[in-house]
Design a protein that fits this description.
By secondary structure, the chain is α/β, with parallel strands linked by helices. It contains 11 helices and 8 strands. Helix 1 packs parallel to helix 2. The protein starts with 5 loop residues before the first strand and ends with a helix.
Length: 247
């Protein structure tokens, strides 16, 4: 087990090799984005398989909590789901209903897919394994942050994720605005008091976030990491070329 919070990245690009590269980089998990990216379910299934083969945990951020949103990713073997735009405990309960087997929820059962080891597991074993699926709910509005304890303590929920970008948009302010930051700090404190696992996005502020009690951090997107790495390489090459011209 690596020290400190678990580290992951959003996967936006519809290429399974991305998952492999992120595993090689040393991340603990990936979150395949079915909310904001154009990745079909066949590719998501392949990405989950790739992650499992590379020893990195596969999560999927779903677009909603209908059976069609949730069931394919779970039966493809996702270790957990990120559910966006959860505003209160009733939204949390709907996410639980879609993700958990009865009596806790209403997830449909079939052990014929990867999650059931292609039928090798008995139905009882498959249902028992389903209890290990992690359900992470994204809190991204002032109301959601105010209700973060009730959301997190809904039976069947494993953790919450604070989304600073959507929070800023919902408030009509810039990212990092003091009013938004104050709401985030208050939510962090509530999570600490109630021992609630909480995560968020991180970049250069990762060290600071560790000190604020976050247990998992998403270090940007695969596309962003590619862009920043390419931009840095181009900048270095341009600088060296200019130095050579001056010489």
């Amino acid at each position: 087990m690596t020290p400190g919070p678990r580290l992951g990245a959003w996967v936006k690009l519809p290429t399974p090799e991305t998952v492999e590269l992120l595993a090689v980089a040393g991340l603990d998990f990936v979150v395949v984005d079915d909310e904001h990216a154009t990745i079909d379910i066949r590719t998501i299934s392949t990405m989950i398989s790739t992650a499992l083969g590379c020893g990195i945990e596969p999560y999927v951020r779903v677009a909603g909590v209908s059976p069609r949103d949730v069931q394919p990713a779970l039966d493809a073997g996702a270790h957990g789901l990120f559910v966006p735009q959860v505003g209160d405990a009733s939204d949390a309960q709907r996410a639980v209903n879609a993700t958990r087997f009865p009596p806790l929820g209403r997830r449909g059962a079939s052990n014929s897919g990867r999650a059931g080891h292609w039928g090798v597991q008995s139905l009882a074993e498959y249902i028992e394994a389903g209890s290990d699926v992690k359900l992470i709910l994204q809190t991204e509005t002032p109301g959601a942050l105010a209700a973060i304890v009730a959301i997190a303590q809904t039976p069947g929920v494993d953790g919450v994720f604070i989304g600073p970008s959507d929070l800023a948009v919902s408030m009509g302010v810039e990212l990092g605005d003091p009013a938004a930051r104050a709401l985030i700090v208050a939510a962090e404190q509530s999570c600490a008091i109630h021992d609630i696992p909480v995560g968020t996005t991180a970049a250069d502020d990762a060290v600071d976030l560790v000190g604020r009690g976050y247990r998992f951090l998403v270090l940007g997107t695969d596309a962003g990491l590619l862009r920043s790495g390419a931009s840095a390489a181009v900048a270095r090459a341009r600088a060296r070329s200019e130095e050579a011209d001056v010489g």
